[in-house]
């Protein structure tokens, strides 16, 4: 009889830690897609692009469009109203997630910026540039020629 009680106690002691692990409820974080940026955020992103690309104001932007390729979930096309006479008109794509500026680049054919309708860009202070890892080049090891 004493052996049965000892066996039951051991079984209970072994089962308690296992049941504690199985009772923990873990929930996976739910993905929330980025929302469209505000007009103020778009203005700040366009101002940051103008600063980076040295564009001359006034600037024009296209309507905000969703994006599956590139740096952010949403983008606008940007162009100068009066480009310098010695340069062809350039179109830029400026990317945002929520109200966060993700970066800009010269537009590509898939962006279809040349086909868009443009309106004056909102005026704002430049956005914070996207954070990038330290861009200092690595030092190269010299090989000995011996």
Which key terms come to mind for this protein?
six-stranded antiparallel beta sheet; 146 residues; 25% helix; alpha+beta
What would your notes on this structure say?
This protein has two helices and six strands. With 146 residues, it is α+β, with helices and mostly antiparallel strands. The protein has a domain at 39-120. Strands 1, 2, 3, 4, 5 and 6 form a six-stranded antiparallel β-sheet that branches.
How far apart the termini lie comes to 84 Å
SSE ordering: HHEEEEEE
Poorly predicted regions: none
Query: What Rg, in angstroms, do the CA atoms define?
Result: 28 Å
Summed up, what is this model?
This protein is an alpha+beta fold. The protein contains 2 helices and 6 strands. Helix content is 25%, strand content 18%.
Which secondary structure elements does this structure contain, and how are they paired or packed?
Elements: H1 2-22, H2 39-53, E1 59-61, E2 65-66, E3 74-80, E4 92-97, E5 100-106, E6 119-120
């Amino acid at each position: 009889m004493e052996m049965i009680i000892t066996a039951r106690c051991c079984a209970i002691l072994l089962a308690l830690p296992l049941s504690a692990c199985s009772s923990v409820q873990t929930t996976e974080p739910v993905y929330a897609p980025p929302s469209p940026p505000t007009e103020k955020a778009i203005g700040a992103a366009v101002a940051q692009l103008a600063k980076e690309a040295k564009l001359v104001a006034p600037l024009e932007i296209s309507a905000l469009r969703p994006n599956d390729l590139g740096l952010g979930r949403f983008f606008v096309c940007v162009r100068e109203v009066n480009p310098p006479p010695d340069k062809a008109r350039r179109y830029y794509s400026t990317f945002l997630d929520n109200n966060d500026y993700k970066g800009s680049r010269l537009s590509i054919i898939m962006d279809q910026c040349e086909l868009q309708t443009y309106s004056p860009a909102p005026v704002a202070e430049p956005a914070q540039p996207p954070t990038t890892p330290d861009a200092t080049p690595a030092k190269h090891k010299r090989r000995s020629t011996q």
